[in-house]
Amino acid sequence: MKLCSIKSRLKLALGVALVGAIIVVGTLVPRPNGSFSGIALAQNPDPQPTGSIQEITASTPNLTLAVGDTVVLSINVIGRQDIEDQRLADDVKFDWSVSGGRLSDGTDGTSASYTAPSDPGIYSVTVSPSSGCIGTGLACTATFRITVRRPGEATGPDAPPRNPEGEIPSILSDSEGEQYQVFTPEEGGIFTGENFSISAVMGIVPNSEIIGLRMAEDGSASNAGMSHHRYTLSGNQYRVFVIDAEGAPISSYNLNGTVTVCIPVPGALRTNISSLEMVNKNSNGTLTVMSSSVRISPSLIICGSTSTLPATIAVGIRGTPPPLLEPDPEPAEILPATGGAVPVSQGIIAWALLVGVALIATGTFASTYRHRRQEGIR
Q1: CA distance 249 to 243
Q2: What DSSP character marks residue 197?
Q3: H/E run at residue 351
């Protein structure tokens, strides 16, 4: 009987150890959904959604047509990471609208047939996806700016400058109340700020059009950490804004020639005047070097030329930008002594449980063995 009792106790100890091991293994083995007790694993996040439209742009944002002309308009579909992918529009319908002229019937894809109206003037065609666009602001709307002229009317840079008919305002304003200097084909124009300016001579603005230009400081120009750049920027960057005669912003405008843009030379670069370059910061994150020169008028400025607006302008010198400085680590938070600390992870809990089960089993076995010896001595 005593031997049977000892065996029963040994079986009980081994059974407790086995159950504990099963609990530990069940805790450590990840669930099918990749979590421990309902807590998602940080190293296996849910996959990000794919196939979303980040932006759409007009393939030819500025067009000049004769009255009654027909042309096919198309848009570029851009996905995540600024990669153009027309396949993202396969299951998306697009809403097209016009301020004048006519679109072909049943237009809801990435291209449409447009017929100019019979009256000369400036018209717009806009398009946006009905769904599936994750961009913000104007990123989900493409705009075509269409200038309609009479048949045989001279156009292009060689045509004599000619202002549009009617009274020309001296100032234009956008929807937010910002004021713009008017630029015309016959007079050109100039906008002047504090140590920065943009100017155009006669014939730069296309005939029969007027535009409004404004320039403003637009934050730091630093490109630290952008190792793909070949110029290191310094100081502030400046933004040139452009609107049409109705005050609507123009996303891309091509001039007959170049306008002159001037900005101050940053103090950090005054010792490298011979190496300075003015650059245009493109929307895709690249830099375009502009033809530029340094002047004293009366302060030290650098001037460059561009034929496309709007533009973001900055100054730099040749060389890869420095890496970004990592912020100093924050000191570890010292928690008040309010009792036992929370376990760092479930792995620690599992191992603590395993050790506890092993200690219980060992204690049970030792007690049983000691009891058996005592009974044997008796």
Answers
A1: 4
A2: E
A3: helix 346-377
The owner of tokens 């047509």 is: 65
Amino acid at position 62, single letter: N
The torsion angles phi and psi of 335, rounded to 5 degrees, stand at -80, 145
Nearest residue to 266 via CA among 218, 299, 289: 299
Distance CA 209, CA 124 (A): 14
Averaged confidence pLDDT in the chain: 80
Contacts of 146 (CB under 8 A, 6+ apart): 63, 64, 65, 101, 114, 116, 122, 123, 124, 125
Question: pTM value?
Answer: 0.55
Q: Which residues contact 340 (CB under 8 A, 6 or more apart)?
A: none
Burial class (CB in 10 A: 0-12, 13-18, 19+), 330: exposed
Please name which of 271, 284, 287 lies closest in space to residue 321, comparing C-alpha atoms: 287
pLDDT tens digits, one per residue of 162-173: 898 889 999 999
Place of tokens 């996806």: 129
- Phi, psi at 122, each rounded to 5°: -110, 125
Which tokens go with 166? 């009617």
